[in-house]
Amino acid sequence: MQATSPASNLPLVRRLEAVGFRAWPAATVIYDGSWQVRLAGGHPSKRLNCVVPLDPSDCRDMDLRLEKARKRFQSYGRPLLLRQTPLASPQLIEHLAAEGWERFETVKVMTTELGRLALPDTIDHLPSHDIGRFVDASLSVTGEDAGLKPALAEVLSAIKPASGLFVIEEPPHGPVAVALCVQDNDLAGVMELAVAAAFRQRGLGVEILTSALRWARISGARAAWLQVLDSNAPALALYRKFGFREAYEYHYWREAQR
Q1: Mind listing the pLDDT tens digit for each residue in 77-96?
Q2: Over the Cα atoms of the chain, what is R_g?
Q3: Cys-Cys crosslink for 188: which of 34, 156, 216, 248, Cβ 3.0 to 4.6 Å?
Q4: In 3D, which of 45, 59, 56, 69 has the Cα closest to residue 7?
């Protein structure tokens, strides 16, 4: 899977968006034309709570459809967010800018060919299927609010493709690194990769990513993908060591404060 210009490879964008939806499923998904409206009652993840336009030609009735989406988001207590991928209509993005919306975050979607990677013959860390243990480890490693445990467990339980939950523990400290790998046919998505702040720069990111990609390749995946903030220089450096290259990027938009 070559990372090429998104303008010339919209089928790749569509495929990666589709596997991304399955790898991080929202509790509620409805369609308004080609706009996917994603909402989650418990988890605040932007990927789970946004409008995602999926057809560059679909820009009809923009104000009406945005207002319908706004009311739906308000019913969930969420601010209206729109995620702009190369599949979004240019006219829609121009409309958002003219209406005072703000583009506030950029995420790179990256891919690598697993067959080209020099990975070890054995897996140092075998995946678990214990969602409760992984959720506890993830919240501990990232320092996120423990109150998110039920919501994160709900998201992980809803993932339908095969998934491996990776945790590295160091006694007596407990969990120090986590990663989720979701295998969807020949594509494997690396999600939720994190290393505890006090244990960074020790090779744990390389260690857990190696195990996840090795498991994915053994399980039949031919390529891997992931998403990373464009401002996260350490993560970008790690992923590029494994041959990950940008396939496309997306941006979040939010309404101006009223």
Answers
A1: 999 999 999 999 999 999 99
A2: 19
A3: 216
A4: 56
pTM here is: 0.94
Domain that holds residue 94: 6-108+250-254
Omega before 86 cis (within 30°)?
Answer: no
Question: Do 125 and 71 have their domain in common?
Answer: no
Q: What is the DSSP string of 119-146?
A: --SS-SS--B--HHHHHHHHHHHHT--G
CA dihedral 239, 187, 50, 194 (to 10 degrees): -40
Same-domain check for residues 130 and 220: yes
Cα–Cα dist 234/211, whole Å? 19
Number of domains in the chain: 2
Side chain identity, residue 103? R
Pairing of strands 223-229, 187-195: parallel
Q: Which residues contact 227 (CB under 8 A, 6 or more apart)?
A: 20, 107, 108, 109, 110
Strands 174-184 vs 187-195: parallel, antiparallel or unpaired? antiparallel
